[in-house]
């Protein structure tokens, strides 16, 4: 998975840049993906649309067998009609159900060389935050009307079944809220934690939708196990879930850009943010189920240039052929 940062100031602008084939960041992202050539790739931080034409256009530029794509808009940029940030103004990006200038802003997209079982895709994006088991929605901050309709997902939670040589693997895709930019109520931090906790509840059978196949959880959790802001215990709990294995993808680049004041192993860091705060963190994850055999794993970074810079590395995990 890769939080690629291909986002623009308005709807349709990324699609235009892809078609024009002259935007340096689009071309650099294309080249980096081709250098890794994963069978299945989740992109986050990628502008999407209702019909999936943007990701399809991007897949066509890769010319590497990505015949199957899936994307849709999430909750980013969807107007809430409420003054969620309490600044006395309505209709700002901060008042959307998740921060965004437009629907699909910085969303998610799947590219696959393996057939996607489209009829079996399940999404939890519309799930109300209050409906999550042991929801931590801060009722003291939100009004009853806001709390009654507030979605949990900031971008989305998807279960995307993929045909792997006759067997099925479920891609559990998500991008969680950033656990900052709020007040003492910690609404973003609590939302981030509950977006991560959703997958634990799913694996425990506590949601109406139940696990049915081997899986790979992939996404930008926006949370490091030890460093930076947020409720670290929730990502630690997911990493330690008995149904999940953590291959600990690493890179020498992470070690070279280490923050000496951080506690986590810097080789596992997946994002290079401003130093010293928030600094470099592990926020992007690819976590196979324990019934899959991991062959290798790593984090592949782009050599940034003056015209195209990427904060996140591409996190990859190789799994053995299914029996």
Description:
It is a single chain. The mean pLDDT is 95. By secondary structure, the protein is of the alpha+beta class. The protein has seven helices and 13 strands. The protein has a single domain (2-319), classed as Deoxyribonuclease I, Chain A, CATH 3.60.10.10. The longest helix has 17 residues, at 187-203. Helix content is 21%, strand content 22%.
- Average pLDDT over all residues: 95
The DSSP helix count reads 7
Strand content: 15-25%
CATH architecture verdict: 4-Layer Sandwich
Which segments are poorly predicted (pLDDT under 50) over 5 or more consecutive residues? none
Judging from the principal axes of the Cα atoms, what is the shape?
globular
User: Mind telling me the CATH class?
Assistant: Alpha Beta
Task: Determine the CATH superfamily.
Answer: Endonuclease/exonuclease/phosphatase
Helix content: 10-25%
Number of strands: 13
The main β sheet shows up as: 5 strands, mixed
Number of domains: 1
| Derived structural class | alpha+beta
Rg over alpha carbons: 19 Å
N-to-C span = 24 Å
Sheet with most strands: strand arrangement: 5-6-7-8-11
Describe this protein with a few key phrases.
alpha+beta; single chain; Deoxyribonuclease I, Chain A; 5-stranded mixed beta sheet; 21% helix
Short description:
The protein has 323 residues and is α+β, with helices and mostly antiparallel strands. The protein is 21% helix and 22% strand.
